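Lecture notes, unit on binding sites. The following record was shown on slide 14. It pairs a sequence with SN-glycerol-1-phosphate.
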Amino acid sequence: METAAAGRKQLAVLIDPDSVSSEQMLTDTCEACNISGVDLILVGGSLITNGFFDKCISLIKKHTTIPVIIFPGNIMQVNPDADAILFLSLISGRNPDLLIGKHVLAAPVLKKSGIEVIPTGYIIVDGGRITSVSYMSNTTPMPADKHAIAATTAMAGEMLGLRCIYMDAGSGAIQPVSAEMIQAVKKQISVPLFIGGGIRTPEQARAACQAGADVVVVGNAIEKNPSLIPSLKAAIQ
Ligand code: 1GP
């Protein structure tokens, strides 16, 4: 987080434990992240149906020293072996459970785990299709062309003391968050800005950084093609 705050662009690889088909695949992805100098590994998913969450984190920790940050899909996704957790408040939605309710339930578990908690303003942006996150959160994504709403939402999040803002078009989005929306938000906040959802190419990753993203998150595209990692990393530097 300090690095992002200091202005160096970072690539975060998102690993969804539910999509890991084998331990070898996970090991290979960690290797590719090590070689390319990936900055962060995020772990989480809307659903964990294979019981692989804890094992996934311990295997990643075994194969890399890259910081592992939990990007939780629900309050069961907590593991003390991770380096930190994004404590997400879904500030684009008006679902009280995801603004504070789940946090009350998770707080004592997090306190006991000793894991670093990163309060994060989470903004879901319309990415051209209904994504798992919009469906599962029971919230309406922010319209992709409402830049002022995005900017003021992020601003309010920062004023509430949130330490970073994560704008997400949702996993597998057709359209990533636009450069115009990223610029509008970046102009109004000083905390690190994560951008993810639907980023498939080095050009899209670079465009997000040039618009103001501090951390670019890529999941699906790397899952399908881990050999993309070096060019994504090169593109954002
Ligand atoms: C989703 O931002 C992440 O929450 C990453 O999305 O899987 O589309 O890269 P992708």
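Take-home: The pocket of SN-glycerol-1-phosphate is lined by residues 14, 133, 168, 171-173, 196-199, 217-221 (CB under 6 Å).
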